[in-house]
Specification:
alpha/beta, Arc Repressor Mutant, subunit A, Rossmann fold, seven-stranded parallel β-sheet, 23 strands, about 45% helix
């Protein structure tokens, strides 16, 4: 058999991984080393060379985008349709499994998936029904607790309060939340994984069936698996399955959401005889950038160890800029971005990374003032937008009248005269009678409500029934189009003046297009509408949309994982900010921060700037920091410092009282943050200084005139 098409584009280490003998394999894939290529070619090798049935391969990725890419590349490589292959995210595959075996899983056939936002709304409603003060019992904390327990595979009955009243209450709220979900047929994201694990754990025959079917398990981003995901994989692998996992312990940066880098370290123990292959050749970055990344990450003690290298050029040095403050840092970054754009480069090929979202404000102000288009990567995705979630709630109610979250969301949207008191009565009745809100509203509308409230409730219930009847028989886009108009949502958002209202209407119309482009799975045992609703819930909360305008990209370092840019700025590189203050004294936390720095460095393909500020105002407070220890871990030979030389002092004393003229050559020093007055421009604050002697200049932010550079010898500034 000719295996050339599968192997000819691979390097030696990649070939070793792809052609590994049938046994457990751990591929340690460094940043930019072609891990996706290895996974795709491994699947093709198994099917085309080893003769494994396509139905015998299960591949797990962490994003729907990655799953679609893998599916498309396998199809192109083998020239066979692969739509029915089990390739998807953990949540997507778990959902597929539960739809097929809903009875065994103890779920209603038309169970509904709720995303993170809907889950939070449900918890808030639960607290209100139980008359619990949400200022003492914060809904997001409860959500975090519930999801954290599910990620560990724990139900309320498994938990011990350990004599702690607060923990006892959390466990009780977890149980109450489970009861509400069970009653409404609702499944959150964490429940998808836990329920799928329990399905196999508690049904030996079913587990045996899938163990026989899936002989080969391919797993991407293995370092990001949490406890329940790894348990699910181990259960499926059993004693006969062959796991092939790809990951990088140096890029494990999601400990805060349950990821366990330890899974990479224990894999060889859990699967004796594991073959280990390291992918160290990088195809993304220059040698200088890779040397810097290697030098930083080598300071972590808990790692399997590898060294990235490239056959490419050494490239430019890493330029480090020591700014006086955050505005000086922003001005420097924007100046270099201008140079980049003026040289004919695309704005979208430049990214500014930061540790905290709060850092973006000053950068955004500077970019706006400079007229440079930008985009904050990680904003709301399509299915997360308010108007889309409203439309989906109507569609869910058409499919399942017992969906309490959807009922609450659109009960009075658009406004139809069902006030807060009526809504509270509906909740109270549902709680007292252990029934869905839909049934409670019907009972109260007939017996308890006064004339106006009764009419409004009947109007809403009749609307849903009418929508269901009128859309019966329509195709998916026809259903969506009818619902967004007949529900009143289009007219409702048309009243929202300006661009925002127009955008909402455009998004609703785009939802119709999304329905038209959706391709239901012929093998799915559910209606196209239910499948589309599940698709929408699974898509909500995932990364950003694919289409980028030509604008500078701003993002956190966490958001940058998996991306690459020719020009990258790592900003705010100060101890206390990055590494974060809460991680400095925690050895595990500090190692994760260093891995995050490694991820940031390896996003850069050609040019990398590292910036930090001596003084920074963040969260309303001024701080004076040392450069990040991660900067010091980069050897000097890879760095070019470009801080301007000027005599300047930090503001360590109180402002000078009265006015003192600044004259060139006098003994009066200047300092950042110093208030000054100019005869023409008025009062301002010194932001920056550069140059010496007769050419010394200061940058002053004037209250009325804005920011200006002034030559000290001519400015005649008075100290305030």
């Amino acid at each position: 058999m000719d295996v050339t098409p599968i192997l000819d584009s691979l390097n030696d280490a990649q070939r070793q991984a792809v052609t590994a003998v049938a046994g457990p394999t751990l591929v340690i894939a460094g940043a930019g080393s072609g891990k996706t290529r290895v996974l795709v070619h491994r699947a093709a090798w198994l099917i085309d060379v080893e003769g494994v049935s396509p139905q015998g391969v299960l591949a797990v990725t962490f994003t729907n985008k990655a799953a679609a890419e893998m599916r498309g590349r396998i199809e192109a490589l083998l020239n066979i349709p692969v739509r029915n292959l089990w390739i998807g995210t953990f949540h997507g595959l778990a959902h597929r499994l539960l739809r097929r075996h809903w009875r065994e899983a103890g779920l209603p056939q038309n169970f509904q998936i709720i995303d993170s936002d809907d889950q939070l709304r449900l918890i808030k409603r639960l607290l209100k029904n139980l008359e619990i003060d949400d200022s003492c019992w914060v809904p997001r904390d409860i959500q975090y607790f519930i999801n954290g327990q599910k990620d560990e595979g724990l139900r309320p009955k498994h938990l011990n309060d350990e004599g702690d009243p607060s923990r006892r209450q959390m466990i009780a709220l977890y149980q109450a939340y489970e009861d509400v979900c069970e009653r409404g047929g609702l499944v959150d994201f964490a429940e998808l994984l836990l329920r799928a694990h329990e399905l196999w754990r508690d049904n030996a025959d079913l587990l045996a069936h899938y163990q026989r079917r899936f002989s080969h398990l391919l797993v991407d981003e293995f370092q990001d698996t949490n406890a329940i995901q790894y348990a699910w994989l181990r259960l499926l692998a059993g004693k006969t399955g062959i796991p092939f996992v790809v990951g990088d312990d140096d890029q494990s940066i999601y400990r805060w959401r349950g990821a366990r880098v330890e899974h990479i370290y224990r894999f060889q123990k859990d699967f004796p005889g594991t073959a280990v292959v390291k992918l160290e050749q990088n195809y993304r970055s220059t040698a200088t950038i890779l040397h810097a990344a290697n030098s930083v990450i080598e300071n972590n003690s808990s790692r399997l160890g590898k060294k990235l290298w490239t056959e490419g050029a050494d490239g430019e040095p890493i330029r480090v800029y020591a700014a006086y403050n955050e505005r000086d840092e922003s001005d420097f970054i924007i100046g270099r971005l201008r140079d980049w754009i003026d040289q004919g480069n695309l704005r979208a090929e430049a990214a500014v990374l930061y540790r905290s979202n709060a850092q973006s404000r000053v950068l955004e102000e500077g970019l706006i003032n400079a007229g440079i288009p930008y985009r904050v990567y990680g904003g709301l995705r399509f299915f997360e937008r308010t108007e889309i979630k409203d439309a989906l709630a109507y569609l869910r109610l058409i499919s399942n009248r017992n969906d309490d979250s959807s009922f609450e969301r659109v009960l009075n949207k658009p406004t139809r005269g069902i006030g807060a008191r009526s809504a509270d009565m509906i909740r109270a009745y549902a709680r007292a009678n252990a029934c869905p809100l839909w049934r409670a509203a019907g009972a109260l509308a007939s017996d308890e409500f006064n004339g106006r409230a009764a009419n409004a409730a009947h109007e809403f219930l009749n609307l849903i029934e009418t929508l269901a009847r009128d859309t019966d028989g329509l195709d998916l886009p026809g259903k969506i189009d009818h619902v967004i108009h007949a529900s009143g949502l289009i007219d409702f958002f048309r009243k929202e003046k300006g661009e925002k209202g127009e955008t909402r209407i455009e998004n609703l119309l785009e939802l119709v297009s999304a329905g038209g482009g959706f391709e239901p799975d012929p093998a799915a045992e559910m209606s196209p509408l239910d499948e589309f609703l599940s698709h929408a819930a699974l898509e909500a909360g995932e990364g950003q949309a694919d289409a980028w305008d030509d604008c500078v990209q701003l993002m956190t370092m966490h958001s940058a994982k998996g991306l690459e840019f020719p020009l990258v700025f790592l900003s705010g590189m100060e101890d206390g900010l990055f590494p974060h203050q809460r991680s400095i004294s925690d050895p595990k936390g500090l190692e994760e921060e260093r891995r995050l720095c490694y991820v940031g460095i390896t996003r850069a393909m050609q040019t990398l700037y590292v910036t930090y500020a001596e003084q920074r105002r963040l969260h309303g407070m001024d701080s004076f920091s040392q450069p990040s220890r991660f900067v010091a871990e980069i050897p000097d030979q890879y760095i070019e410092e470009i801080r301007p030389k000027v005599r300047v002092s930090r503001p360590t004393r109180a402002p000078i009282v009265g006015r003192t003229p600044i004259r060139q050559g006098s003994e009066v020093g200047i300092r950042l943050g110093q208030r000054v007055r100019h005869k023409k421009f008025g009062d301002g604050i010194i932001l920056n200084c550069e140059g010496q002697g007769a050419h010394a200049r200061v940058q002053v932010n004037f209250e009325d005139a804005g920011t200006k550079w002034l030559v000290l010898s001519y400015a005649n500034l008075d100290l305030m």
